[in-house]
């Protein structure tokens, strides 16, 4: 494991990549602020009339099905395919993909469009991989470890790096794998932080290989979460402190505090 | 008045109910954070392609017409009817229902779909009840007391519990009624807190009768507001502190600080 | 230069104008909170089924194309024309107008509908004026000074007051012009603050002439930003403190700290 998350953070910040996000309504504001805080340049561009055209100027794309509808789904497909055609990275966030027929169908079609990275909780990765996991809304009831085999299989089948996030994250490209033991129990008590992390993964993919980028992004987010928890009095002040911590995170802090191990 | 709001808070938290919210774009993020903070499990699922199907797994539903359009209105109707058919609670938030013909029509159709609870400010309850109230945007210009008779009438006609929120809240099922004298003047200076409260009412309805649930939810929200105001320097820090306070609220604090009286 | 921003702030607050906003999904919540904090009454009403009707009761309108689509574009046009027909002010925020064909077309059509004020960053004003500026997403890469000539030309051609915001803002009606040297470097690190400022300009236009209103609104926002920066530890706590500062801003503070000069 030669991953140097601090180096990847520094490279990402130097590039300040333009990241297009087709995300859900709950996440849009916090995701844009997370991306600005860590040093990327977010653009929330999802209308079908312009999503694929905008993909021509974006350097990475994140696609999140949290509040999609058929029209948005079409824009997601078109933008994802535009990124693929240009050899640019895009990251799939299959929110609650097991919950409804519409989500299962949209998730399957996006999976067929060759995402660079897939990030979800254990339930979502199990559902996307075709395992019969409990798909109760957007909560992760499955521990990450129960989804590791499904993640490896999904990575091999799709060619994507697959990240299962939870108390300890698991990342695999189907061959190598890593666990990231950063983060804080307050993180799932704030809405849309997982969604926001997906955008961070997309940003890191502009200047690093998908596997290294994903590991570094997860470590950076988790270390910032630990920092944020120090002075937080609850999920409200935690959310504010997380933005401050992402802004203040240095490559040195990240390398010192990252707990990344091969899996 | 035998209402024990602390007990209802404890029961709701134990159930951690999955609450589906078809709400407005302004409220989505803060409403999800409010529901997480108080201990429920929110899901913002509104697309017509899946709203009624998702209602099959949700334990309660809130419907808010703040930024609806005809397509969303159809999804609201379908989800509300699905909840009704399954005997599960749903709560109507008729934002600015008197302001436009579209809202009046949608509000009337949702009212005909038998909501379990209706929560609005005085203007909204007066407008929904058919009184000629000033419908200036989403602000409450009418004092709560002026809407009490309309609320009783609306409750009797619709079979719903009706809550009129303001400086002192009024709740009635058409027979019994209560006033809740909690809250803080900063609350209407933060957008979407009333919308968020509607989701909290829906969560409490999963484990308590509609009248008791509504009274307890309003008391809990108001007590948290009082707590939040202690250290706030303005509406920005107040909003953050409110999320912390909802998270930190205990049944004992709630029972001690709730100011509920029969009306 | 006889501009008295404090006086205009006091007049706006006394009127507490109902400002309709057809804005993007990222900005809706923070924009509503900004408008409440400074003393206006925001309403986020954009559905085509009611946008023009609601314009009949609103006192000012802001239109922001940040996440528009063709249906929203139609609602924007109808609401803007309704405001114009009633002689009420409306403000255009041409977010990333140079980025896609859809935005260029919608921006041009809105420009033809006679906005009272146009507020953008240098890239956006250059693009709207027909200059060939870099239209990379929503970031302002062009310094304000490079857009001054385009702003004067755009003001003369359209009849609108044009505001170019950046480190030092520039405002012109095509004849007179002013520079406002307030604000803080943290402001562009929080998403949707420029969008929110556009709503503040709309609010000030209800009780002051467009040029004076725009200058006063920009000064008020910038002074609040300076105040917010005093205790902020990063963009998260800055955003919270900005809402507090807008709420706490007094006319006296504004007059004392405003740095407005003729240009």
How would you explain this protein's 3D organization?
Three copies of one chain form a homotrimer. Chain A is an alpha/beta fold and 263 residues long. Chain A has one domain (5-262): Ribokinase (UDP-N-acetylmuramoyl-L-alanine:D-glutamate ligase). Chain A contains eleven helices and nine strands. The first copy, chain A, has helices at residues 5-15, 28-38, 51-55, 70-85, 101-111, 122-129, 148-158, 193-204, 210-229, 235-248, 251-257; strands at residues 18-22, 41-43, 60-64, 90-93, 117-120, 161-164, 169-172, 177-180, 260-262. In chain A, strands 2-1-3-4-5-6-7-8-9 form a nine-stranded mixed beta sheet, with helices on both faces. The longest helix of chain A has 20 residues, at 210-229. Chains in contact: A-B, A-C, B-C.
Chain oligomer state: homotrimer
Radius of gyration of chain A (CA) equals: 16 Å
What spatial order of strands do you see in the largest sheet of chain A?
2-1-3-4-5-6-7-8-9
| CATH topology call of chain A | UDP-N-acetylmuramoyl-L-alanine:D-glutamate ligase
CATH hierarchy class name of chain A: Alpha Beta
* Unreliable parts of chain A: 133-139
Helix and strand content put the structural class of chain A at alpha/beta
Mean pLDDT of chain A: 95
Number of domains of chain A: 1
CATH architecture designation of chain A: 3-Layer(aba) Sandwich
Span from first to last CA of chain A?
10 Å
Q: What is the element layout, followed by pairings?
A:
Three copies of one chain form a homotrimer.
Chain A: H1 5-15, E1 18-22, H2 28-38, E2 41-43, H3 51-55, E3 60-64, H4 70-85, E4 90-93, H5 101-111, E5 117-120, H6 122-129, H7 148-158, E6 161-164, E7 169-172, E8 177-180, H8 193-204, H9 210-229, H10 235-248, H11 251-257, E9 260-262
Parallel strand pairs in A: 1-2, 1-3, 3-4, 4-5, 5-6
Antiparallel strand pairs in A: 6-7, 7-8, 8-9
Helix pairs in contact in A: 1-9, 1-11, 2-8, 2-10, 4-5, 6-7, 8-9, 9-10
């Amino acid at each position: 494991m030669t991953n140097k998350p601090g180096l990847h953070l520094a490279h990402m910040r130097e590039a300040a990549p333009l990241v297009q996000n087709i995300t859900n309504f709950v996440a849009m504001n916090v995701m844009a602020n997370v991306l600005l805080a860590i040093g990327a340049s977010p653009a929330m561009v999802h209308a079908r009339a312009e999503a694929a055209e905008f993909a021509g100027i974006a350097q990475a794309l994140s696609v999140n099905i949290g509040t999609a509808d058929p029209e948005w789904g079409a824009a997601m497909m078109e933008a994802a395919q535009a990124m693929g055609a240009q050899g640019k990275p895009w990251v799939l966030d299959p929110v609650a993909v097991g919950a409804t027929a519409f989500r299962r169908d949209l998730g399957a079609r996006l999976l067929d469009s060759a995402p660079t990275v897939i990030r979800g909780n254990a339930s979502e990765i199990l559902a996307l991989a075709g395992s019969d996991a409990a798909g109760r809304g957007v909560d992760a009831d499955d521990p990450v470890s129960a989804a590791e085999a499904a993640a490896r299989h999904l990575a091999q089948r799709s060619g994507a790096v697959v990240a299962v996030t939870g108390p300890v994250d698991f990342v695999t490209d189907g061959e190598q794998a890593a666990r990231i033991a950063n983060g804080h129990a307050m993180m799932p008590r704030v809405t849309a932080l997982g969604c926001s992390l997906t955008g961070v993964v997309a940003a890191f993919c502009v200047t690093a290989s998908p596997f290294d980028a994903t590991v570094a992004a997860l470590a950076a987010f988790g270390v910032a979460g630990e920092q944020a928890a120090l002075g937080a009095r609850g999920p409200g002040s935690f959310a504010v402190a997380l933005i401050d911590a992402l802004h203040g995170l240095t490559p040195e802090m990240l390398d010192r505090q990252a707990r990344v191990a091969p899996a």
